[in-house]
Specification:
Strand content of chain A: 25-35%
EC number (chains A, B): 1.1.1.3
Oligomer: homodimer
Family (chains A, B): Belongs to the homoserine dehydrogenase family.
Radius of gyration of chain A: 22 Å
Distance between the termini of chain A: 51 Å
GO molecular function (chains A, B): homoserine dehydrogenase activity; NADP binding
Catalytic activity (chains A, B): L-homoserine + NADP(+) = L-aspartate 4-semialdehyde + NADPH + H(+)
Protein name (chains A, B): Homoserine dehydrogenase
Chain lengths: ~400, ~400
């Protein structure tokens, strides 16, 4: 029935080990022939004959028809992926940064070579959102895709809102538990969810936007005053990427903290879990929930991609090829809460109207309407210490 | 890019009307040419030229390449579906009973004719669970599929547990609001979720089991004592179908009420909503949530099937064709709560062991281990007035 896959894997962490173990126990018609690793000397749990530091031992082995790329370095990952695709091998990757920055060229290379590149593991771990957007939701009918895409930030926010921890303590705990990197900027600064959003936008609407052009503001400026404000109104703050269709063929993309009410299903997504909220014509809300981060959830998505390759599955990128293409816009009004200390900020950032204004010796905030374009242009002013912005419904 | 679909639709209810409206407003490369209806005289919101009572006006129209079947009568629906497939037309259906009873022959007809039959709308409305089981989860790696598949029963249970209503009052309200039929047996007796479970089992494990062979016990014998018992232990009762792999290649299938703790994500699924819980190797829990019942959720699934047909999508039924087939078993131990009035029941139903025994003037219950096989053989004794059974963790 299925094609036998002979796999060369780049990187050997918890995912690689886990994949190896499960592939051994199950009758999946798969074999991992080689792991390419950086450090040959490191002690391994598997026979040393399985390991090499020479990428070509995989890329030039004609018997290996599938490359699984699980390394952190985005540039190295891109180089491996391109070489493997051009060598006629199918590739599975979970490197969101590499993918978000290079999707268009990677799609072209797939079309030229006929090779297949799958990357479900790059967005929200075990949640099969790419597959669902690719296969199930017609872009004409898709109103929006949003959700909790970053487990580390969500873990921190859960600790802050449910256990009354300060942002700094919660961040430290997340780092101790391995939910956040030593340099947490990628996560708490909203870059990681932005990369995922760029990939989602491509499969949801056939729209490629370079991540540099997408606004990302994270939770790293969150202060006790903002938490107090939220709690008084029975709201939680969540870090939410959004891809949304406005007037027919225009698409808005951004990552911002948002005040979320009890009624929202995202209110209940806690700790390192992820949830993806899809709004489509007719369907009302559809919600996909699962473990977002960590070796095993990512491993499950990688494994699903691998098993799909046995049947020659490839993304068709239909939506990118539709007659009526959509376009990216930043002409979009948001209602936001902006907390600040220095009044002069308001002279530099143009709100279209201000609904509420609060000031005290400790902090000031306004609630008002501002355009996405303005937030992007004034990002440096808005995304600085002493200032916190979050979207309101 | 996509193939133009010319659609003939059987039935014209809220789904048909909604589909017509949305297809008109969107650029989907679809056209609904004819509705086949029972009653020509009924007043319609659309031009009468669109309606006919003659099935052949659709089945024998060579221009119509897609049949959408939305009628209640399972036998008539099967007849239409078979004729349409044999006439080389693709078919979209949401008739769970028709599908569950005839899946094998319908799959054979698809293989003979090359036509495609899609039926996402038949299971959990807008939740794309069939597609995900078909495309994303390898049966070797799938531990279990469970969840809340029946909106009517869940609506009733929500009213009982959250608003303290009696089962009878809640049922009446569900009927008044149109969440339950005048004869609610299909829903509250667990037949509807059983049909869905049979379809799920086919796409999850490639296993076809005739619904007559699958145990279904519903919530229609639920009593105040059972609710009191659950609430004292901070549990809710939910009606849960389960498809589960046991020892490698054996599959257990049944529909039973179950005591669900706060920690379970199903605990939070209320009213007419549906939720599907998938457990797979590595992935831990994955949860799909959405509106289960009603015209619009079903319409969204039907519409997704229709749009997929523009690209020639068909289920591949890979799992049904795997080298190592799985088999259905009823040799499976369950831990259950059994409430009864007549002590003699215990002499007729064989428990493997009894952990707890409670009796009072109002009611008695035991908690113990019993085999699925025994429950099936003694169903008439267990599923009668004055007796209520529910699974415990």
């Amino acid at each position: 029935m299925s094609n036998k896959l002979v796999i060369g894997m780049f990187g050997f962490g918890v995912v690689g080990q886990g994949l190896y173990d499960i592939i051994k126990t199950k009758d999946l018609n798969l074999e991992i022939k080689k792991f390419v690793i950086k450090n040959q000397d490191k002690k391994r749990s598997l026979p040393s004959s399985l390991f090499t530091t020479d990428a070509n031992a995989v890329l030039q082995d004609p018997e290996i028809n599938t490359v699984v790329e699980l390394i952190d370095d985005a540039d190295a990952a891109y180089d491996i992926t391109v070489k493997a695709l051009k060598a006629g091998k199918n590739v599975v990757s979970a490197n969101k940064k590499m993918l978000a920055n290079n999707l268009e060229s990677l799609v072209n290379i797939q079309h030229e070579t006929g090779s297949s590149l799958l990357y479900e593991g790059s967005v929200c771990g075990s949640i099969p959102i790419i597959r669902n957007l690719e296969e199930y939701y017609d872009n004409e009918l898709l109103h929006s895709v949003s959700g909790i895409f970053n487990g580390s930030s969500n873990y921190i926010l859960s600790k802050v809102f449910n256990e009354g921890q300060s942002y700094d303590d919660a961040l430290k705990q997340a780092q101790d538990y391995g939910f956040a990197e030593t340099d947490p900027t990628l996560d708490v600064g909203g870059y990681d969810p932005k990369f995922k959003l760029a990939i989602v936008a491509y499969h949801a609407y056939g729209l490629y936007v370079n991540p540099d052009k997408i606004l990302n503001i994270g939770i790293d400026k969150l202060g006790d005053a903002d938490v107090k404000f939220a709690k008084e109104k029975n709201l939680k703050i969540k870090l939410l990427p959004l891809a949304k269709e406005v007037d027919g063929n225009q698409i808005v993309l951004y990552v911002l903290p948002k005040f979320v009410p009890k009624e929202s299903i995202l209110y209940a997504v806690e700790n390192e879990n992820n949830g993806v909220l899809v709004r489509a014509a007719f369907a009302d809300e559809q919600f996909f929930y699962g473990k977002g981060a960590g070796g095993h959830p990512t491993g499950s998505a990688v494994l699903s991609d691998i098993t799909a390759l046995r049947y020659g599955y490839k993304y068709e990128y239909k939506k990118h090829l539709v007659d009526k293409p959509v376009e990216y816009t930043t002409h979009y009004q948001l209602r936001v809460y902006l907390r600040f200390s220095d009044e002069s900020l308001l002279e530099k950032v143009n709100f279209d109207n201000i609904e509420e204004r609060y000031s005290s010796k400790d902090f000031n905030y306004i609630i008002g309407q501002i355009s996405l374009k303005e937030i992007i242009e004034k990002k440096e002013l808005i995304d600085q210490q002493g200032v916190f912005i979050a979207q309101m419904d």
